[in-house]
Each structure stands twice: as C-alpha cells, then as structure tokens.
Amino acid sequence: MVALSFSAMNSKEVIVRKRIVEIYNKQQEDFGTLREYNDYLEEVEDIIFALVEGHDVEAVEAKIAKYKEENYEQIVMAQARKAEERAAQLRE
User: Fold this and answer.
1) What is the pLDDT of residues 13-67, one digit of tens each?
2) How many domains, in total, are found in the chain?
3) Range of the structural domain that residue 39 is part of
4) Sign of the alpha-carbon dihedral angle for 31, 32, 34, 37
C-alpha cells in the first residue's frame, strides 16, 4: 500500500515536472550570474513542489500564467531550439 502511494506520487511529480520545465526552460547562459541561475532553478523546484503537494495551487497557477505571458517569446524559442536539437540527434 505504501509503495502504491509512493508510485502514484512519483508519477504525479513526473507529470508536473514535465509540464513546468516546458515553460520554465531557461538555461544557465540566459543569466548574468550563476547565482541568478541557481535562484531561478530554486524557484522552479518550489513551483513543482507546491503543485505536487497541493500547496496554494491557485496562486502558483496564477504565477505560472503570468510567467508564460511575460516570457512567451523566450519560451517558444527555447522549445524550438530543443526540437532542433532532438532532430539533429535523430539524424546522427
């Protein structure tokens, strides 16, 4: 019974993480300092944790929506870059 609960939670985390990293997809080179990048990664992990655990979901979803709106162009460009990288790997 515990293993099943852990498995279900793990599955939920994978689904949430996949969704969030498609949106919050900046790379280290997008930041001026390593500290700024690490703060960004910590924010992403906090968002994932909140959604998986069900903490203040409405506020977190609003924050995600705002981020998507403010960073739409960067998000789309990063997703396109990732798709190109995958295509290149398949051609190898």
Assistant:
1) 999 999 999 999 999 999 999 999 999 999 999 999 999 999 999 999 999 999 9
2) 1
3) 2-91
4) negative
In the chain, the amino acid numbered 40 is Y
Contact 17, 48 (CB under 8 A): yes
Residue burial 42-60, b: 16+ Cβ < 10 Å; e: rest: eebeebbebbbeeeeeeeb
- Distances 11 to 14, 15, 18 between C-alpha atoms, Å: 5, 6, 11
Measure the CA–CA gap between 34 and 37, rounded to whole angstroms: 5
Question: Which pair of structure tokens corresponds to residue 34?
Answer: 């390593």
**Amino acid found at 86:** R
Q: How far apart are CA 57 and CA 21, in angstroms?
A: 17
